[in-house]
Please model this.
Amino acid sequence: MYNRNYQIIKGEKYAKLNLGIFNQQLIKVNDNLRIIILVDENSMEKIDSTLLNRFEKLIFSFDHLFDNQLKIIYNNLIEEIGLRRNIRQIENNHCLMNLLTSCENIEIKGLIYYFCKIKKKNLNELDNIDEEQLKENIIKKIYKILPKDIIDILPEDNILKIKYNKNKRIYNFKDYISNEELKKYKISIIYTFSSIFDNVYCLNKKLSFSISDIKSEDEIINLINELKRINQNDDENENYICIYFNSSESININYMINFILNNSTDDQYNYILIICIDKYLDDEIYLHIDINPNIYQIFIDNLNGKKF
Model:
């Protein structure tokens, strides 16, 4: 552990860990413990160098996983989607570029790898990849989390625009919670240009909270339990809890997803994570295409919006 940086006391291994109140305490290390830390190369400067220096470091990317066939599929798909190419033609496009975080090259490569390799039990089946079906699966993941600002600038024959116009059925929060099909998802992520402070039709504010107000995991658990108690005593008795994030807090989405999945498996509630984006601010926005089949993602430009 930690490049064998541990002490042996009476034949057992111990390591010093900084973990909240357990600062610099000697912690017993199980012989079977293995730790892998995944760090995005763009985040390396933010990681404590003391921590990283205790680990063997390897650079790993999808370029190491893609054979020539997958590289060709990827290049064809990027060319057909053409998002960045079209947005570059628009003046003052920085906000729109920020909204394309979910369509970065690494995300597209991740989806290709997932659908081609992870879902196929027999890797020899890669010789028979249905490129059209693969493209369809990826397009279905992408078009739902694009705002109308981006859809509008795409050519009429763009595959994303065609799919969006053909399938768009949710225009506001009321549409969302009224959709019986979507109630099967334990977690939903809604990206929106609406403000955290907006009064949203059909959204029970008593069953929502902002992640900005939370300081610890215990607070999350206590608050969720309190919201459930309030709901049980409410005449409306909803089955969802909404958690608000602003643009800068969107980086915490994966943490909250894992927290909910690990701590709310037995309840009957749906958790709706609402990321409120200010399109006029130069904030980096973290939109992550989640391949978990129990998670639904969608961009609803205006939570009080009308059909257009």
The CA atoms of residues 208 and 242 lie 4 Å apart. The first strand starts at residue 7 and ends at 9. The chain has a mean pLDDT of 79.
